[in-house]
Amino acid sequence: MRLTLASALAGAIVAAAIGTALAASPAPARTPYRVDVTKIQPKALLPKMRLHDDFIVAINAKGQVTRVLSGHRSGNTQFDEKMYGNALQMFIRTSDGHVVLGKYRVNYDYDPHTTRIRRTIALVSTGGVDPNAIGAVTDMLKHAHKDPAPILTAPPSGSLNSDNLPALNDVFGPSPKPH
């Protein structure tokens, strides 16, 4: 097959058009990759021994934990505080979404080899709880919104003797005059 001038010219035009189209398109974006967080964590900071926390909690009709009734802690303050906070935030329901009112045992077991925490929940007794009780976290939020953190205010009158204070201009200098 012989190449003619017309077919060669047509091929060159098509190649130029493809090159122009490719040059005008944006560079392909780098695809995101998955970060394995377990490889970048400072494992030296994690506990080197097994830890176990055990709490007895009461729930309401929604399955929300209303309070922690008792517990046995591991002795590791950071672990104990985090697990206590986790227990307060839980909802306990059956796999089909129903609530069995009662008291539950919640266990947290930390394995230093896998650096994972296993939580197990078991019904201790049915009944004996208030189904209309407010959840622990909801109660804490209600109190927090009712009594917000105090804002810095002026000291109570009489506690500051202004006679012994220097004049404000002596401390900061005279205020600049507007132009």
How would you describe this protein?
This protein has a domain at 43-146. It is 29% helix and 21% strand. It has 5 helices and 4 strands. The chain has a 4-stranded antiparallel beta sheet, covered by helices on one side.
Highlighted features:
179 residues; alpha+beta; 4-stranded antiparallel β-sheet; 5 helices; 4 strands; extended
Write a short abstract of this structure:
It is built from five helices and four strands; from the N terminus they run H-H-E-E-H-E-E-H-H. The chain has 179 residues and is α+β, with helices and mostly antiparallel strands.
What is the element layout, followed by pairings?
Layout: H1 5-24, H2 37-40, E1 51-59, E2 65-72, H3 77-88, E3 102-111, E4 116-126, H4 136-146, H5 168-172
Number of strands: 4
Helix content: 25-40%
Radius of gyration: 34 Å
Q: How many separate helices?
A: 5
Largest sheet: 4 strands, antiparallel
List low-confidence stretches: none
Tell me the quaternary state. Answer: single chain
Give the N-to-C terminal Cα separation: 90 Å
The best one-word shape is extended
Indicate the structural class.
Answer: alpha+beta
Q: What is the arithmetic mean of pLDDT?
A: 80
Please state how the strands of the largest beta sheet are arranged side by side: 2-1-3-4
Please trace the helix and strand order, writing H or E for each element. Answer: HHEEHEEHH
Strand content: 15-25%
